[in-house]
Each structure stands twice: as C-alpha cells, then as structure tokens.
Design brief:
binds adenosine monophosphate; five-stranded antiparallel beta sheet; alpha+beta; binds zinc ion
Length: about 140
C-alpha cells in the first residue's frame, strides 16, 4: 500500500468495515454510504492510485470487467431498469476521495438520482480546434 492514511486504502484492505458486495485480490466493491440510488456501490482497488491517470493500465482493464460483472448482479438483484457507471477525477470533476474508484449506480423509474449535465451547444470551429489540440498530444 502506497498511502496508508487514505480512507479507501483502509476500506479496500478491510481495516475499516464496509458492506462488501464483492472482493478479490485486486478490488473490493462496497455500498456507498451516501447513495444516489438504492444499491449505489463503489469499486475500489486495493492498491492506492489517486485517479484514472495514475491507475495501472492492466488494473484499469480488470476494473471495467469487474464493474460490468458486479453491475449485472446488482441490476438483477434489485430490478434496476438502468445503470450508470460514474468515475470522477479531480476536485473540479466532483472527486472527493482521492483514491481511484468507480461508482456503480443502479437506476429506477423516477428515482431522481440527478446524474446529468446541462448540454451546451457545440461550435464547429471549436470542435476542429479541440481535435487539432488533442491530435498534437
Ligand atoms: P467521489 O465524489 O467520486 O470522490 O466519491 C466518493 C464517494 O465515496 C461518495 O459517493 C461518498 O458517499 C462515498 N464515501 C465516502 N466515505 C465512504 C465510506 N466510508 N463508506 C462508503 N462510502 C463512502
Ligand atoms: Zn488509498
């Protein structure tokens, strides 16, 4: 473990109790204490990575496969009619715990979970500029 003071390191490694839906050598999936909807869970790697950009690539691949499998179990168990996978990186994106995690959020009719953004209006010139800037990376 790289950062022992981190709360998700402690939860993922079982030092702090949690309601665990799934666990293997790399991940723990727990119920979120502030759920957006019933069954809202968090997939947390046992190793500390601050965010997506810090995350080991092979672990990232295993994270999405594990998220898919556990999401399906949650969906079937709770009769969810939709599902959001949400993953925040950085304070400006709403990240509050700086240990990589994925939100697994089952959705139901009229659940008012409020996972949305305000669509803007795309500008063709700006889209071309964005493409040019990304291509340069
Ligand atoms: P984020 O805002 O993407 O960093 O998400 C952090 C999430 O962790 C929030 O949804 C919190 O409700 C959740 N959370 C924080 N502490 C705990 C905890 N001890 N057990 C379960 N969920 C937690
Ligand atoms: Zn951590």
């Amino acid at each position: 473990m790289k950062e022992c003071s981190c709360i998700f390191c402690k939860i993922a490694n079982g030092e702090i109790p949690s309601t665990t839906l799934y666990e293997d050598k790399d991940f723990r999936v727990i119920l979120d204490l502030g759920p957006a909807a019933r069954g809202h869970a968090l997939l947390i790697p046992k190793e500390h990575y601050a965010d997506l950009f810090d995350l080991d690539e092979s672990l990232a691949a295993r994270a999405i496969v594990t998220a898919k499998r556990v999401a399906l179990k949650i969906k079937n168990a709770l009769g969810a009619t939709g599902f959001n996978l949400v993953q925040n990186n950085g304070e400006d994106a709403g990240q509050t715990v700086f240990h990589f995690h994925m939100h697994l959020i089952p959705r139901y009719p009229d659940d008012h979970a409020g996972i949305a953004w305000n669509p803007g209006k795309a500008d063709q010139e700006d889209m071309e500029e964005i493409k040019r800037l990304v291509d340069e990376q």
